[in-house]
Design goal:
It is built from 16 helices and twelve strands. The chain has helices at 4-9, 13-30, 33-39, 48-101, 126-166, 183-193, 208-216, 220-229, 242-272, 281-308, 362-379, 407-412, 414-432, 447-456, 502-505, 556-565; strands at residues 104-106, 112-114, 320-326, 333-338, 346-351, 389-395, 439-445, 464-468, 493-496, 524-526, 531-533, 536-538. Residues 333-508 form the DUF1023 domain. InterPro entries: AB_hydrolase_fold, DUF1023.
């Protein structure tokens, strides 16, 4: 059993240094291979004495072969343990850094202690601050548990290898043809069985802090192996760095395309094998429906390529991150960032609404958000690198469409509620993946604003929220009447409603998605009309789909989004 106190003393240097010593002894032993082959038999000597001598030589040779395997296993184990401990040390130090920054301590037994909120916290904020600190304490405890889990896994794996070495059970060399002995082969065999496993990720349903703590406690070598060998365990795991998720998901695109194409061929063959008789019509319809779904998914992967790859070189664009890729539902789901969510000081997460999909209109949304990002960077004064702001277009759910089979979801709001749970985890995961929380803004358009609003009722890590073209931000069966229920700081919710937007104007009066956001107490109402901003004249927005359009012409609504995303609400233009 490994304790937190033990982990505080862990250092990879002793095990790493031992590898050199073991390797030196191993090389000396392997050099004796020729001599062993020479003494394994003497030409012309026979009789009882020769048999006894040969038996003893065989024992010595077998023992030397086993020793070579043991040295091979030990040098591999010590190397892997030293490498893995570097991950534990990183996870430990990152955790201690976060705890210190938030004014918490971690005792020798691994318990988390709150040293108190920031001095001067206003009394009216005491309850909200206390709830936030409880959340932080729970996250720190989750991270402690993951670092300990990794340390115990290393301890168990390393001890298992050393136990085999000490008990002489690494490899059984008896029965080997000693006239052809090669000690390097036995050393290689020992090296193979001396390796450590990589700790599996937390189970389904784990918190984003558990995911973050698990990843932080892996060594860079272990992380690289997982990205390369098992990208499906990494790409959609909330709480992991954006660069890591993107690399894993880009690797998955090719695998998914190959799998889908193979499934499509199989379905086409089944379809071709059916006769035209009436008994096969239902089967034909089912097969054709499955083929259509696969075609949509393949089109979605093509769309991902257009968003992520430079059309001139075919290489990944350095300013894009593929933060999620889920092909498990009826329609593809994805999240694409413009900018680096791991480093940007300000991160916006935009959730589109009804009729949105990856295969057709997501590239346009990504371009729209890229334009908002560019303008937001100018507002923070970042006109050189443009790295201060990152914008994510999140389509990690299946919004309803105008198709007849989607009307039930549109009426009940079930897709918004299901998507909200995933969205809240995604947003919280952006914070958990970083030792320093970015300024995080949630933006939701149309049905996406409903999804965003429901997500804000959960643990989410969001600092500001912008709703536009909203039919309402809560389900009708559990409406939100006050912005205080969104778990946002007071004054940090904003709404845009353009002239002629029937969704924002007419739908809320039905009460299907809660009260009218334009009338909700505590929500800042922002302008969508023509105005003059820091860069000159800005056009007004009209209707439901002109809040952000990547046409190079700046709209007042885009300016207002950028002002909130960039952390400059004082520059926003009120209605």
């Amino acid at each position: 059993m490994v304790s937190w106190a033990d982990i505080l003393r862990w250092d990879p240097a002793p095990t790493q240094n031992a590898v050199g010593t073991l390797n030196g002894e191993y090389l000396k032993l392997v050099a004796a291979s020729d001599e062993l082959r020479t003494v394994s038999g003497v030409d012309g000597w026979s009789g009882p004495a020769a048999e006894v001598a040969l038996s003893r030589v065989t024992e010595l040779v077998d023992g030397t072969e086993e020793l070579a395997a043991e040295l091979g296993a030990a040098r591999r184990a010590f190397g892997d343990v030293g490498d893995a401990i570097t991950g534990v040390v990183h996870g430990r130090e990152e955790l201690l850094q976060i705890a210190k920054k938030q004014n918490f301590t971690i005792s020798a037994d691994g318990s988390v202690t709150d040293l108190g909120p920031p001095a001067g916290t206003p009394p009216e904020h005491a309850e909200a601050v206390a709830a936030e600190r409880q959340r932080i304490a729970a996250e720190l405890a989750d991270r402690v548990a993951q670092v300990i889990r990794q340390a115990e896994d290393i301890d168990a794996d390393g001890c298992a290898v050393l136990d085999r070495v000490l008990t002489g059970t690494t490899i059984d060399a008896s029965g080997n043809d000693n006239s052809h002995t090669g000690l390097a082969a036995f050393g290689d065999a020992g090296f193979t069985v001396g390796g450590l496993s990589i700790l599996s990720p937390p189970p389904d349903g784990a918190t984003v802090a558990q995911n973050a703590g698990w990843w932080a406690a892996l060594s860079p070598h272990q992380q690289r192996r997982l990205i390369h060998d098992l990208p499906e365990l990494v790409g959609n795991r909330d709480g992991l760095p954006g660069t890591v998720r993107s690399e894993a998901n880009l690797a998955l695109v090719g695998k998914q395309r190959t799998s889908l194409q193979s499934a499509r061929v199989d379905l086409q063959q089944q379809l071709a094998g059916l006769t035209n008789g009436p008994g096969h019509q239902n089967t034909r319809n089912v097969l054709q429906s499955e083929i259509t779904k696969i075609d949509d998914k393949l089109a979605g992967l093509d769309s991902v390529d257009r968003m992520m790859l430079d059309p001139r070189t075919g290489q990944p664009r350095p300013d894009r991150q593929l933060l999620s890729l889920d092909m498990g539902g009826d329609r593809p789901q994805a999240a694409v960032a413009t900018g680096d969510v791991d480093k940007a000081e300000h991160v916006g997460v935009f959730t589109p609404g009804m009729n949105s999909n990856v295969q057709h209109n997501m590239p346009g949304y990504v371009n729209d958000m890229a334009e908002v990002r560019g303008y937001a960077n100018t507002l923070v004064g970042d006109v050189t690198t443009g790295d201060s702001v990152a914008m994510v277009t999140w389509l990690g759910y299946e919004p309803p469409t105008t198709r007849a089979d989607d009307l039930d979801g549109l009426i009940t709001g079930a897709p918004a509620e299901e998507g909200a749970e995933k969205l809240a985890r995604f947003q919280e995961g952006i914070n958990a993946a970083r030792p320093d929380d970015p300024h995080l803004t949630a933006l939701g358009h149309s049905y996406g604003s409903t999804t965003t609003g429901i997500a804000l009722g959960q643990s989410h890590g969001v600092d500001d929220a912008v709703f536009f073209g909203s039919p309402g931000i809560s389900p009708g069966h559990n409406p939100i009447f006050h912005v205080g229920d969104l778990n946002l700081p007071e004054g940090h919710a904003y709404n845009l409603a353009a002239e002629g937007d029937a969704v924002a104007d007419a739908v809320p009066h039905s009460g299907r998605y809660g009260p009218h956001v334009s009338d909700m107490p505590g929500v800042n109402q922002l302008s969508t009309e023509a105005n003059t901003g820091p860069l000159g004249p800005m056009i007004g927005s009209h209707g439901h789909s002109e809040y952000a359009v990547s046409d190079g012409v700046l709209a007042t609504s885009e300016h207002n989004m950028a002002a909130i995303v960039s952390g400059h609400p004082e520059m926003a233009i009120p209605r």
